[in-house]
Amino acid sequence: ARRVVQQLGLERLSPDVGEAVETRGDKNASAATKLLRRLWVTSDPRAYLITVSFTSGDPKLAELVANTFVAEVLRSTKVQSLFQQRAYTQTKLSSQLAKFGGKHPKVAELTSQLVSINHSLERLMEESSGAILLTAGENVTKAIAAPSTPHPLRVVGLFLFVGILIGTGVALFLERHKVSWAFFQRYA
After folding, report:
1. H-run or E-run covering 29
2. pLDDT digits (tens, 9 = 90+) for 130-184
3. Residue partners of 158: CB distance under 8 A and separation at least 6
4. Residue 92: partners with Cβ closer than 8 Å, 6 or more residues away
5. Which of 20, 41, 104, 164 could form a disulfide bond with 31, CB atoms 3.0-4.6 angstroms apart?
6. What is the DSSP letter of 25?
7. pTM of the full predicted structure?
8. CB atoms within 10 A of CB 164
């Protein structure tokens, strides 16, 4: 969540996080906590599906925040994988250096791999969220803005109000056209 705040900036997120309360000088941590309160993540292990939802008054901002969260999860997964590769390569390099010395071809190859992994880590940390989502390909579907479901109490209230309006309209119609109950009883 902190990386999302860093990526998008406090100014852009101000409608959702308001004025981030400064706690020990870290506004980003406060804003990240507020963002996490509006984030829902569900998973379906049978379909290998993870759904990320974010609620906001601004649909475009909600879409952007949800996509940024997904991109940061993908980034952290790739970073973790690269750290594991780097640790393995460093261990192997240390072993090869002890056996063969610095001029051996295996040592040079492992050194080259280590430099390549470090460059990949640097590029990954500088890569934009959009670029990360693009490289994910068909495995990730970008978020879209969708209206939230209405509150049940509001729906019930709306139906009651409409019912009262219809009842009042029928009563006024019957009063205006002087239709009596006898008319209804005769045809009932």
Report:
1. helix 27-37
2. 899 888 888 888 888 877 667 778 888 889 999 999 999 888 887 777 655 566 6
3. none
4. 110
5. 20
6. T
7. 0.68
8. 10
